[in-house]
Amino acid sequence: MDLSLLAELNAIRAARRAAIVVTDLSTGAGRLVREEAAAADPLAEELLARFRSGKSGLAESAAQVFLTVHVPPPRLVVVGAVHISQALAPMARIAGFDVAIIDPRTAFATPERFPDIPLFAEWPQDVLARMPLDPFTALAAVTHDPKIDDHPIAAALSAGAFYVGALGSRKTHAKRLERLAAMGVPAEALGRIRAPIGLPIAAQSPAEIAVAVLAEVIEALRKRGAVAREKAA
């Protein structure tokens, strides 16, 4: 691989962004396509599908081109060390997500309740200042406490997180939208919040709700950007 291309790729990976190295198998020449530029590329359809799947391979539309996909590992940041989180965290790790739990309430955020899971018993705004959200991060806010949930929800929307979900009824969410709008969050961004959180599978128990949330997160990950492009078309 060309050294300048490798340096650019390493910088992209360090910034938790996605790119694909397109290699012409007949010549060995390679070029780098950043995700944000993929829609304008001659191989746009193939590249966009690869960015969503995260899988490398021969391009179906050009058999002599190999696509090496570099996508950051997806993260799930859960705000709220509650019963749902206790079920959600280990399931998300099995599904391949890096997981972090944030909750300033030290009675809930204990290592005994979340063994082997990165746990931050701090206010979300302090944690996120050190560990910024990004487009490859999902945020699930489940404390039911506006003082804890609202800031990270706004931060996730601003960062372009691929999933932003919040626990609560439709009435609770309506009040949340009013608060976030007052904080200056644009109406278009507010429409991205998944609330009530999780796929509608009539979940009842914390474990069932966790399944619904994880399924919705995975769906959002695998369809990243696809809905927006469909609407634009």
TrEMBL record:
It holds the Pfam family XdhC_C. Residues 76-217 form the XdhC Rossmann domain. InterPro entries: MoCofactor_Util/Proc (IPR052698), XdhC_Rossmann_dom (IPR027051). This is Xanthine dehydrogenase accessory factor. It comes from Prosthecomicrobium pneumaticum. The lineage of its organism: Bacteria, Pseudomonadati, Pseudomonadota, Alphaproteobacteria, Hyphomicrobiales.
